[in-house]
Write a structure and sequence with these properties.
Blueprint: E1 8-11, E2 17-20, H1 29-42, E3 50-53, E4 61-63
Antiparallel strand pairs: 1-2, 3-4
Length: about 60
């Protein structure tokens, strides 16, 4: 969810993860923010995370 009030990672009961970021979706800023937030949340390097599908969509498939 780009342009949210706070940066946060919110696991859902169905197993998906909703990421709220204050970054705008322009120029890939929101995607970079999502990767940074997930890396911090799961305590892994940013280089191990990539967006497999959905770079221009709100719904994404992300690989660790």
């Amino acid at each position: 969810m780009p342009r949210a009030k706070l940066n946060k990672v919110d696991p859902q009961p169905d197993g998906t993860i909703r990421v709220h970021t204050t970054a705008a979706p322009a120029d890939g800023d929101a995607n970079a923010a999502v990767i940074k937030l997930l890396a911090r949340h799961f305590d892994v390097p940013k280089s191990t995370i990539r967006i497999v599908r959905g770079t221009t969509s709100r719904d994404k498939v992300i690989e660790f």
